[in-house]
């Protein structure tokens, strides 16, 4: 890393010294990096991410303007053949992106992903950085955006040249631990965001519970099948359009199965987080 810095004038390494109050906290390291940065626009990704093209920074930065001080991008996961877990991870990623892009598009931005996002430096300092949630290990991306984003200051970037690609978890246990940590930050979102996201998930869950239950007891099965079919057609259209933009078209045909897997997984994670809070970063 020091050789890399010596060979490139525009690279600066920041040595994060041991601090008893913040040791092991990603937000502390990010804050130090932001403080020594020389320019006004900050672009973020994670250590395991690779830009999808050499135009990544160009694409992201082109969305800044006098009004737009936040740019939300898409962080994809690498595809692995013959892996149901990989498809589930990528399906959840597309559904999350569909939500936070859609909400931002109608003027209700509520989160971004640290794998691919950008904002102005003065926005960070005017908000006192991560001060309000520094003690929480997660949230350098979604909690910060939840605090500072509004109808007028947020822009979206989802061109394929602007994507970043990460290596996904390879075991179900590792992915569950990661999702437990991610989901735990949602408790600190603004109330209206929590209500909207909660209603979305609850209606998903109740639809399948009631639909399957009514089919089992034999209640007007033609009507129930028709309603399930109508919902799937609408969902296939919405999800398919999004998956095509994010180059995840192999997930479209598996959408109903992956949705059922995801709903049950999220329910188990919610219950697990009620019993005990996730304590580990990895």
Automatic annotation (TrEMBL):
<keyword id="KW-0328">Glycosyltransferase</keyword>
<feature type="transmembrane region" description="Helical">
    <location>
        <begin position="253"/>
        <end position="275"/>
    </location>
</feature>
<dbReference type="Pfam" id="PF00535">
    <property type="entry name" value="Glycos_transf_2"/>
</dbReference>
<keyword id="KW-0472">Membrane</keyword>
<dbReference type="InterPro" id="IPR029044">
    <property type="entry name" value="Nucleotide-diphossugar_trans"/>
</dbReference>
<dbReference type="GO" id="GO:0016757">
    <property type="term" value="F:glycosyltransferase activity"/>
</dbReference>
<keyword id="KW-1133">Transmembrane helix</keyword>
<keyword id="KW-0812">Transmembrane</keyword>
<feature type="transmembrane region" description="Helical">
    <location>
        <begin position="223"/>
        <end position="241"/>
    </location>
</feature>
<feature type="transmembrane region" description="Helical">
    <location>
        <begin position="195"/>
        <end position="217"/>
    </location>
</feature>
<feature type="domain" description="Glycosyltransferase 2-like">
    <location>
        <begin position="25"/>
        <end position="91"/>
    </location>
</feature>
<dbReference type="InterPro" id="IPR001173">
    <property type="entry name" value="Glyco_trans_2-like"/>
</dbReference>
<keyword id="KW-0808">Transferase</keyword>
<protein>
    <submittedName>
        <fullName>N-acetylglucosaminyltransferase</fullName>
        <ecNumber>2.4.1.-</ecNumber>
    </submittedName>
</protein>
């Amino acid at each position: 890393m020091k050789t890399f810095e010596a060979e490139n004038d525009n690279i600066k390494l920041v040595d994060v010294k041991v601090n008893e109050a913040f040791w092991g906290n990603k937000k502390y390291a990010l804050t130090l990096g932001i403080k020594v940065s020389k320019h006004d626009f900050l672009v973020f990704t994670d250590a395991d991410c690779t830009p999808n093209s050499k135009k990544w920074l160009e694409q992201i930065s082109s969305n800044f303007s006098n009004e737009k001080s936040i740019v939300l991008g898409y962080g994809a996961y690498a595809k692995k053949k013959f892996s149901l877990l990989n498809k589930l991870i990528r399906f959840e990623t597309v559904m999350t992106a569909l939500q936070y892009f859609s909400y931002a598009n109608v003027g209700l931005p509520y989160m971004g992903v640290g794998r691919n996002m950008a904002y102005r430096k003065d926005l960070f300092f005017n908000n006192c950085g991560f001060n309000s949630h520094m003690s929480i290990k997660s949230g350098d991306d979604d909690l910060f955006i939840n605090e500072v984003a509004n109808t007028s200051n947020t822009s979206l970037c989802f061109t394929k040249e602007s994507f970043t690609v990460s290596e996904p978890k390879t075991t179900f246990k590792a992915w569950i631990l990661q999702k437990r940590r991610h989901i735990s930050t949602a408790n600190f979102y603004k109330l209206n965001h929590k209500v909207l996201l909660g209603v979305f998930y609850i209606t998903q869950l109740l639809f399948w519970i009631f639909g399957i239950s009514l089919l089992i007891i034999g209640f007007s099965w033609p009507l129930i099948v028709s309603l399930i079919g109508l919902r799937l057609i609408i969902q296939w259209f919405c999800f398919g359009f999004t998956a095509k933009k994010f180059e995840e078209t192999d997930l479209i045909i598996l959408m109903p199965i992956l949705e059922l897997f995801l709903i049950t997984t999220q329910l188990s994670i919610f219950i697990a987080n009620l019993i005990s809070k996730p304590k580990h970063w990895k």
